[in-house]
TrEMBL record:
This is Bifunctional NAD(P)H-hydrate repair enzyme. It comes from the Bacteria. Homotetramer. GO terms for molecular function: ADP-dependent NAD(P)H-hydrate dehydratase activity; ATP binding; kinase activity; metal ion binding; NAD(P)HX epimerase activity. It catalyses: (6S)-NADPHX + ADP = AMP + phosphate + NADPH + H(+); (6S)-NADHX + ADP = AMP + phosphate + NADH + H(+); (6R)-NADHX = (6S)-NADHX; (6R)-NADPHX = (6S)-NADPHX.
Length: 491
């Protein structure tokens, strides 16, 4: 699990670290770590540090200061360091340090000539333009230099974060750096975890600056495959189909029978103890042949799924309202999301909107949701009183009244196809039926889908993906058992 903090919390951590040890010079520590990473890249890319040519892009804040001090360290190791101030007034002490070490400060050229300032034979550029003090986007003159570096295929090491991205939301609304490596100081920033900024970071090197922790901080916690393997509710030796969980599925319609079929595949292959299907007649007809283990008719369940493929089902709102009265947890997906009760749901319920569906719930544009998925997921949870799994390139889980969020393991964009959401809803309902709390169910379900999809080199239809999830779960279960054995033999 990797945890990122919003910028205002990182500033608080920084202040606390300085208060705890005023002599600890954070900028020197950051610059030292940055220089070491750049040196490592130079060795890897050209075999040696000595004799390399490095261009520093310098902005007017401390991010530029980090780059200048790192440049001074590299200059002392025989690197030809050139600093190009591109924004604001460069950090004075950093400039002086670079000059003393033999680095050169380039004159900023006129706007249309900026691109010409990239020196011939440049091995690597350091992006010290903007850090956590930056607003998203970059002026044209900086974008021109980035285009030139890109044309020359000069790799960029970003200082703290790639300049131009929105550190808190992960949005990339204008020109921004695409880094080969990002050297992140003190604590991870949300842009390292949220697309599209995440893909701009390249390889991320986290540098420990001795920051402490604080329970009041907002945590954006990203699951990894180890978390998925460890937290999945595998059956134990004494499990029965009832203790594993019976999932009730009320999904599909005569217009959209596939949704019910796909949701049932998701539930069965994610390991439901039993699936009771309450959905459309047309879905049942196909399911009887495809998955003969499914049962029909009333009976006890541990969790429900409503809404996938309902279309304009007239009694949908009543079905959901009745489900809420039972006190059982449930997933509400797709068309069910337009039929939520005015009084809201419950935090034990998981709603699974994509950006367009959440925008409709919030009465805003889809673009607003996509440009700040964490913020939008929060608003969705507060508005509906349910736990929200916002689907998309970055899958965010938010709970009502809670600021911290979970982010699922990222997966390939091939998953973005009709029917994937139905399978995912079935997987999540299985987790609820197994007793997993709604937020964890959303994060684990979305992660299983992503990890499964990543095992295919290209597109795969959702029902095949669902089937393969069973194989992935088998492998994850073995891995979890191995890790538990190793842990046990150590203690
Ligand atoms: N936190 C830590 O523990 C540590 C932090 N450290 C380092 O400090 C960095 C943060 O430094 P920082 O606060 O000086 O902000 P930074 O991003 O360098 O620049 C802000 C300047 O840019 C300007 N500006 C902003 N957006 C703009 C835009 N779109 N286009 C044009 N201009 C724009 C803005 O000017 P404004 O227009 O707001 O007056 C302001 O002058 C951090 O990322 C890390 O590298 C490490 O040294 C040690 C540990
Ligand atoms: N760019 C992307 N990268 C990875 N996964 C994605 C991306 N876009 C969407 N997904 C995933 O694909 C699935 C699509 O779900 P959805 O749009 O609800 O499909 P449907 O409702 O038609 O079944 C979701 O699990 C979503 O998170
Ligand atoms: K930067």
């Amino acid at each position: 699990m990797q945890t990122a903090y919003p910028v205002h919390d990182i500033r608080r951590l920084e202040e606390a670290a300085i208060a705890a040890d005023p002599r600890h010079d954070l900028m020197q520590a950051a610059a030292g770590a940055l220089a070491a990473v750049v040196a490592g890249e130079l060795v890897e890319r050209r075999g040696a540090v000595y004799g390399a040519r490095v261009l520093l892009l310098i902005g007017g804040g401390n991010n530029g200061g980090d780059a200048l001090f790192a440049g001074a360290l590299l200059a002392r190791r025989g690197v030809a360091v050139r600093a190009l101030p591109v924004l604001g007034t460069p950090h004075p002490a950093g400039l002086a340090a670079l000059r003393r070490a033999g680095g050169r400060i380039l004159e900023p050229l006129a706007v249309d000539e900026q691109a010409e300032t990239v020196p011939q034979g440049c091995d690597l550029a350091v992006d010290g333009v903007l850090g956590i003090g930056g607003r998203p986007g970059l002026p044209d003159r900086v974008a021109a230099v980035l285009d030139r570096l890109n044309d020359l295929r000069v790799p960029i090491v970003a200082v703290d974060l790639p300049s131009g991205v929105d550190a808190d939301t992960g949005a990339v609304p204008g020109a921004a750096v695409t880094a080969a490596v990002t050297v992140s100081f003190g604590a991870a920033k949300p842009c390292q975890l949220i697309e599209p900024a995440r893909s701009r970071c390249g390889r991320v090197v986290d540098v420990d600056l001795g920051f402490g922790h604080d329970d009041r901080l907002t945590r954006i916690s990203a699951l990894d495959e180890d978390d998925l393997a460890r937290d999945w509710p595998y059956p134990g030796v004494t499990s029965s189909k009832y203790t594993r969980g019976v999932v009730g599925i009320d999904a599909g319609s005569d217009s959209y029978p596939g949704a019910g079929i796909l949701a049932a595949h998701g539930a069965v292959y994610a390991g439901a103890g039993m699936v009771r299907f309450h959905g459309a007649e047309e879905s049942r007809r196909v399911l009887t042949g495809a998955l003969p283990n499914i049962v029909y008719g009333d009976g006890r369940v541990q969790a429900m799924l409503y809404g996938s493929g309902w279309g304009d089902r007239p009694d949908g709102a009543d079905v959901i309202a009745h489900g809420l009265e039972t006190g059982l947890p449930a997933v509400v997906d797709a068309d069910g999301l337009q039929r939520l009760p005015a009084g809201g749901l419950s935090p034990e319920w998981l709603i699974t909107p994509h950006a367009g569906e959440l925008a409709r719930l919030l009465g805003c544009d889809r673009g607003e949701v996509e440009s700040d998925p964490v913020g939008a997921a929060h608003r969705g949870a507060d508005r509906t009183h349910a736990t929200v799994l916002l689907k998309g390139a970055t899958q965010v889980v938010a709970r009502p009244g809670r600021r911290s969020v979970l982010i699922a393991v990222p997966g390939p964009a091939w998953t973005a196809q009709a029917g994937s959401g139905d399978v995912l809803a079935g997987i999540c309902a299985t987790l609820l039926a197994a007793g997993v709390p709604a937020a964890r169910a959303g994060a684990l379900g979305a992660s299983l889908q992503a990890v499964t999809a990543a095992e295919f080199p290209g597109p795969v239809p959702p029902h095949r993906l669902a089937e393969h999830a069973a194989t992935v779960l088998g492998r994850l279960g073995q891995r979890a058992a191995g890790a538990a054995d190793r842990e046990g033999s150590r203690s």
